[in-house]
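Pinned message: reference record for PTS system protein
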Amino acid sequence: MKYVTNFAEGFMNLFETGAETFIDWMSSIVPLVLMLLVAMNTIIAFLGEERVTKLARVSSKNVVTRYMILPFISAFMLGNPMSFTLARFLPEYYKPSYFASQAQFCHTSNGVFPHINPGELFIWMGIAQGIEQLGLNSMDLAIRYLLVGLVMNFVGGWVTDYTTAFVCKQQGITLNKKASTVTE
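Predicted structure (tokens):
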């Protein structure tokens, strides 16, 4: 009977922990993301979807701007997770690759720009503390991590282009390579 009771208590603890996490998110990350969505949509409405779509169209034509410049600007200006929302203006074909590049960039830029991914700042701070205890400059490491990250994020996006092409061919799917407005 003790095993059944322990199992039932553990089972209920799982849901209590889930409920606590849910309430924590409702008072922290959910309002933040909601406000960032409102801000981004306001900026898009102010600038006009046509201009933002034109920027995405121009960015999507060049692999360097698509997987190095656009992810950097969106991460720097919007942070994680809002930086992913700029993909809505890219052609369907490039969305998986943009996501791959953007997801990596939100991690590799954290040492120089901690506002991009504050949820993982504790990881960088732990590494930086170890570097500083060795008598080394943590900003040197942060900049190297950022630069290597830019190159590797570009490679990740580009490789995902090839993966997308392979899967499209395998599944007989054709994805659009031209950006269109969201309302079309």
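Pinned by admin. Summary line: The chain has a mean pLDDT of 83.
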